[in-house]
Amino acid sequence: MAHEYWLNRWERNEIGFHQEGFNPYLLEYWPRLNIADNDAVFLPLCGKSRDMIWLHNRGHAIFGVELSKLAVADFFQENKFNPVRQAERDFTRYAAGRITILQGDFFNLNKKHLEKISAVYDRASLVALPPDTRKRYVQHMMHLLPPATQILLVGFDYPQSEMQGPPYAVSVEEISMLYQHHAEINLLKQIDVLHENPRFQQLGLSRLEENIVLLTTKS
Questions:
Q1: pLDDT tens-digit profile of 179-219?
Q2: 3-15+23-217: CATH superfamily
């Protein structure tokens, strides 16, 4: 999907994907990763997610990447951080204490950027990408991450023919296909959430599931 699409969504404040509170699945399942409180966590396509604050409050170092300059600026302003901004190749780095966000294209990340990462939190990244980009996204992520990195992935699934994404439908079967050669896959929970989402009911969806998956990268 063209960069302009997401940049325009932020410019028009069309950010229904943004959650004002902490994601309940993060709170419930993050302890399953069993990583140290001071370990570094990567959030791809992070937007201005409040989940970064929850993870930061646990003691984690936060490393995010986000295309929209507006989203990055909003995150630091709304959470009362005063970041140091520094231009570097392909990115603008915003850093405040244990929180660093690179503003730029995820696909420009290299291994050095993620060499100290112990875990990844992907709440709405994979489902934000159209089918022809998802495979590239996963391959690039797996190329970057150290072995034995854990990924908590929260995704959506619904009949794709009933709604045009994003968020796109990504089934458990597709997640398995995308990650099976790169990671151990553990489906933690599969929940029917259509009744909790009247907006999606009004759009005509007959089924809406959220899938919580724990991945562990192979050597």
A1: 999 999 999 999 999 999 998 999 999 999 999 999 999 97
A2: Vaccinia Virus protein VP39 (3.40.50.150)
Q: Which residue type is seen at 25?
A: Y
**β-strand 209-217 against 91-96: which pairing, if any?**
unpaired
Find where tokens 């439908």 sit: 169
The domain ranges of the chain are: 3-15+23-217
pLDDT tens, residue by residue, 67-105: 999 999 999 999 999 999 999 999 999 999 999 999 999
Dihedral sign for Cα 174, 177, 182, 186, please.
Answer: positive
Residue with tokens 């603008």: 92
Q: What's the distance, Cα to Cα, between the start and end of the chain in Å?
A: 31
Q: Which H or E element spans position 198? A: helix 198-202
**pTM for this one?**
0.93
- Contact call for residues 50 and 19 (beta carbons, < 8 A): yes
d(CA 157, CA 168) in angstroms, rounded, equals 8
Angle between helices 131-144 and 172-179 (to 10 degrees): 40
